[in-house]
Amino acid sequence: MSKLYNTWLGYFLFVFCVFSSTLSAKETLHVAVASNFKTVLQTLLQESPLPGVQVKISAASSGVLYSQIVHGAPFDVFLSADGVRPQALVKQGFASQSSLVTYALGELALWQPNANKVNDKVAIANPRFSPYGRASQFYANANFKKPISYVYGNNITQAFQFVQSGNVSIGLVAVSTLKAAYSNTQNPKYLDYKVLEASEYPDIIQQGVIIKSTKKMASAKKLMEFLMTSSTQLKLIKLGYRSKDSNASK
């Protein structure tokens, strides 16, 4: 009797452990995120909008992420800083048209935290890979004295870091990056910037798509739906983005 009891007890414990492990296991959603949106997405995800899902973020310039996806990187979602690359993925069959959304409009700021330290170099993201870089170069060419000596960051976050470190005295950076830096440190130097008028540079239309090869379609759709809710969109304005409604043509 004791032997039979122990056998059934062992079987019960085995089934319980397997069941508990299944309940506690989290699905991992791999999201490729343009560098300007990394910290913002992390902030939004603190609300736990995707219960049972762990979001793993890989951040880089939109151009680099696009190239990685085309070459087989196993991402489930791509949140770009432009519309060109997500739309190219749709045309090339890597993403579906129905998943394409405009989740934010980026904002640029002119940041010079130390007015007493001036040199002739301007930090911007590399226009070859970054939509923020292209918008920055457009503004600088129209407004700065020529010739302009650029210091290119691999992405808009690195352009911010060049100014933050003091290696470059002035930069064109994402408003969202400055707001996140101030939120984390309360350092007043992150408030010493000028938000550029939207009419002074090309629209930074940030679009996202779900990659067709994903095995986690339901979770990917939930993430996109969460980004597009009115409450999330209002938060994005506070975090350094323009409202999509402020540009009706888009």
Mean pLDDT, to the nearest integer, reads 88
Rg, please?
22 Å
Strand content: 15-25%
Distance between the termini: 75 Å
Read across the widest sheet, the strand sequence of neighbours is 2-1-3-10-4-11
> Which structural class do you get from the secondary structure elements?
alpha/beta
Unreliable stretches covering 5 or more consecutive residues: 4-24
The proportion of residues forming helix, as a percent range, comes to 40-55%
Q: What composes the largest sheet? A: 6 strands, mixed
Count of alpha and pi helical runs:
9
Name the shape in a single word: globular
| β-strand number | 11
Offer a few descriptive terms:
single chain; 250 residues; alpha/beta; six-stranded mixed beta sheet; five-stranded mixed beta sheet; 40% helix; globular
Strand and helix layout:
Layout (H helix, E strand, L loop, with lengths): L1 H23 L2 E8 L3 H7 L8 E8 L1 H9 L6 E3 L4 H8 L9 E6 L1 E4 L9 E5 L5 H13 L5 E5 L2 H9 L5 E5 H11 L7 E3 L9 E6 L6 H12 L1 H9 L2 E2 L8
